[in-house]
Amino acid sequence: MITSRQLLKEIGFGVGGLAAVVLLCALIGSEPLSLEGIVKGRQPDAQIFFQVRLPRLMLAVLVGAALASSGAVFQVLLRNPLAEPYILGISSGAGLGVMLAVLAGFQWSWGELSAQSLFAFIGALATTALVWWIGGFTGRTGGPGMILAGVVVNVFFSAVIMLLTALAKAGQIQTTLFWLMGFLSSYTEMKIWVVSVFLAGAGFGILLWLSPQLNILSLGTAQARSLGVVPERLFPIAFIAASLLTSAAVSLSGLIGFVGLIVPHSVRLIFGPDHRRLLPMCALFGAMFLAIADTIARILIPQAQLPVGVITALAGGPFFLLLMIRQSKPVYGGGL
Amino acid sequence: MSFIQIQNLAFSYGGLRVFENLSLEIEQGRFCGIAGPNGAGKSTLLELLAGHRKPSSGKIRIGGLSPAGGGFKRSISQLAAFVPQESTPVFGYTSYEIVMMARYFRSRRFFFEQEEDRKIVQEAMRQTFTEDLASRPITCLSGGERQRVYLARAIAQETPLLLLDEPLSHLDLKHQILIYEALKRLHREQKTILMATHDLNLAAQYCDWMILMGPGGRLFSGPVQEILTEENIGSIYGIECRVYTVEGMRFFVPKAAEGEGKRAEY
């Protein structure tokens, strides 16, 4: 059972926790900062805090929130706890988009929107459409059809990316390689921020509004239909909204894997599967998770820039394995 | 006009014909049992009525509306509640949350449940003896417990029609009787109940209408005393059947038909 007051209280605590995590993460690093110095505006503390660390952490917050909440939605739409933007191939589609933009030598930008992030966005959306289309042959809702479609697309696109990497010149690869491993930059243009926040916000808003229906849909299309949901209407709307969320994140940060898997599962264990609570909590905890992961990446090897995707994948791989082992054990009562 | 009207219904799975030319009428307020051998189409009939499947041809009308029709998609939930034969939950919603899902489209689609919804859910769970299960995740329930939760959800949906696909198949004896009594109360409140079942003895005690379905579209439909006879049961199932009356209740004792028993020995 859930009431508005209780939910608001939980979200309030979550926001507070997130703010504390972000502040803490911003203070630690190769150059430890003092809170006092920042408040008083002492240089270079204040400059590092406001112009280097905080923007990067805000990016981590946005990307983490978007990836985690879209992961939760893909899991319920496909009724498969293993669904995730990365596994569904959406991320590698975005990667291919960037790769093509770099190889084609697109240097132009539209306003301040670079060719790379635009291609990432288009790549993510196009791949979603492709997975959707292939899923049509194997069965979209329930069953492993869409996951398999995603895995096939993912493997294929990854192979194409490798092929292109082999063909590319060394100088060209450097940026793409970083991008493929997923990294968060301190220098994101304002316009990209505005576009991404708008897209992610719209996607999240739609999904939150649909969350009571997502709960019902989790029972499968047949039961959902009898309870009033129109699956052929809800499914595409929610799928597109989740794809928007993913695309916004991927075009900002490259391929950061497993956030959409680890966070929703952990949050579900703590708060239960009700999407009215699950989605906001996934957004908050996803934001915290990525902020912490990026800080670890930043301080682990101070000289080299370790992509945050390496950290999330190192944590995510074993987690995924654990989940698979748990899932394949027969549960009392015949659950999945 | 009958509440449920089925005219010249045809349906097939791929190449497999289930119904060819089925016509059937059921009045409002019937407690109707549906029995027949495996594969006769009991579940398919219920799924067609629930709008989960579209007929290849023919007409289905419930209260004058078509369950698979365009504008009717959402309103089927106002008209018919459905309890599936089996269902594998993926996420661990509590029983209470599962039953509450009946209320979203039934009430005015509030983001949060209203006090009235809570009362209705509690009452439905009381009727199906699932109050104790309220906070348990549906994934951790036994088959019989889960069926009672789904039945509670169907009751909380407050529809004039209940479509129940073997809702008692996993229930123990005591709960079978208790649930039948609960259904009888709903029946008295003028709800129409269609229930697929394999238990002819209990159906004969509680139902007032019976549909016997056989392979190849053979069908008997009528008042329960007229339909559940030695001849009908024998011919539909391909067995021999004796009917005995004990304390005014009729019991059906099946026997392997001549030849069938011999086949089983090999």
Brief characterization of the structure:
The complex is a heterodimer of chains A (336) and B (266). Chain A has 336 residues and is mainly alpha-helical.
The H-and-E topology of chain B, N to C, reads as EEEHEHEHHHEHEHEEHHEEH
**Average pLDDT across residues of chain A?**
84
Oligomer: heterodimer
The count of DSSP E runs of length 2 or more, i.e. the number of strands of chain B, is: 11
Helical/strand content category of chain A = mainly alpha
What is the spatial order of strands in the main beta sheet of chain B?
A: 5-6-7-3-8-9
Structure, explained:
The complex is a heterodimer of chains A (336) and B (266). Helices cover 75% and strands 1% of the residues of chain A. By secondary structure, chain A is mainly alpha-helical. Chain A has a two-stranded antiparallel ribbon. In chain A, a hairpin with a 2-residue loop joins strand 1 and strand 2. In chain A, helix 4 packs parallel to helix 6 and helix 5 (115-138) packs antiparallel against helix 10 (231-253). The two termini of chain A are 24 Å apart. Chain B has 266 residues and is α/β, with parallel strands linked by helices. Chain B has 10 helices and 11 strands. A 6-stranded mixed β-sheet of chain B has the order 5-6-7-3-8-9, sandwiched between helices. A 3-stranded antiparallel β-sheet of chain B has the order 2-1-4, with helices on one face. A two-stranded antiparallel ribbon of chain B has the order 10-11. Classes of the chains: A mainly alpha (336), B alpha/beta (266). Chain A binds chain B through residues 1-4, 7, 76, 79-81, 212-213, 215-216, 218-220, 222-223, 225-230, 268, 272-274, 276, 331-336, and chain B through 47, 50-52, 73-74, 76-78, 80-82, 84, 87-94, 96-98, 100-102, 104-106, 109, 111-113, 118, 139-143, 146, 153, 157, 163.
